[in-house]
Amino acid sequence: MILLFCGLSGAGKSTLAHSVKARLSRAVVPVEIIDGDTYRERLCTDLGFSRRDRSENLRRLGFVADRFAAHGIVSIISAISPYEDVRNELVQSYPNVKVVHIDCALDELKRRDTKGLYRRASLPDDAPDKLHGLTGVSDPFEAPAEPDLYFNTQHDSIDDCTTRICDYVLSQMAVAKRRRARLG
Ligand SMILES: Nc1ncnc2c1ncn2[C@@H]1O[C@H](COP(=O)(O)OS(=O)(=O)O)[C@@H](OP(=O)(O)O)[C@H]1O
Ligand SMILES: Nc1ncnc2c1ncn2[C@@H]1O[C@H](COP(=O)(O)OP(=O)(O)O)[C@@H](O)[C@H]1O
């Protein structure tokens, strides 16, 4: 299974990816986190934040996620993934891709500002530290029309989100197991 987490910077993708991994490891379910930030430092160093590059970024993460998933590992892609067409492309290209929208209001993200990106995006255009094209501020984010799971992390606690995601994964795994048993 591939869990495709998408949402704005600071919404909670990495936090939830790690808490889900920790919780599922207790049930002996292997999880691999494929984090946009980390892969941008290694596999995707040539990519920036244009539409073309963000699309290529997600295609690469999807390919890696599928390789892990093929070996029974739950792959969590934790990236902003702002475009519906590329998310749908992954859903159609690989088996068992579930889209998880990690949502949060911009006001709350500006308050959290864990990496200082929102402050930098609000600087005057000629400021040396100005961040252009920040998703949700000066670059688009297309909310998934039909996510498999939806969270608003301003209202849903880390623990509640983690429980719902883990319950979903375990129930999907149980369905797949029953299907395999029926087919012999
Ligand atoms: N312009 C702009 N817009 C959005 N994000 C930016 C930008 N510049 C740098 N960053 C940092 O890059 C991280 C997002 O990388 P992703 O690979 O997840 O993005 S994308 O899916 O390709 O849109 C994102 O990480 P997260 O905060 O974990 O989401 C930011 O730290
Ligand atoms: N329900 C929640 N789920 C995830 N993170 C939350 C939640 N509520 C508050 N937070 C906080 O929001 C921040 C999210 O940061 P992070 O996980 O790095 O976001 P992202 O990976 O989407 O950029 C963390 O400081 C986290 O503690």
TrEMBL record:
GO MF terms, alphabetically ordered: adenylylsulfate kinase activity; ATP binding; sulfate adenylyltransferase (ATP) activity
Catalytic activity from the UniProt record: adenosine 5'-phosphosulfate + ATP = 3'-phosphoadenylyl sulfate + ADP + H(+)
Enzyme class, spelled out: transferase
GO biological process assignments: hydrogen sulfide biosynthetic process; sulfate assimilation via adenylyl sulfate reduction; sulfate assimilation, phosphoadenylyl sulfate reduction by phosphoadenylyl-sulfate reductase (thioredoxin)
Pathway stated in the Swiss-Prot or TrEMBL entry: Sulfur metabolism; hydrogen sulfide biosynthesis; sulfite from sulfate: step 2/3
GO cellular component: cytoplasm
Domain APS kinase positions: 2-150
Entry superkingdom: Bacteria
Keywords: ATP-binding, Kinase, Nucleotide-binding, Transferase
Record-linked CDD domains: APSK
Gene3D superfamilies: P-loop containing nucleotide triphosphate hydrolases (3.40.50.300)
Record EC number: 2.7.1.25
NCBIfam families: apsK (TIGR00455)
Entry function: Catalyzes the synthesis of activated sulfate.
Family of the protein in this entry: Belongs to the APS kinase family.
Protein name: Adenylyl-sulfate kinase
Organism: Duganella guangzhouensis
Gene designation per UniProt: cysC
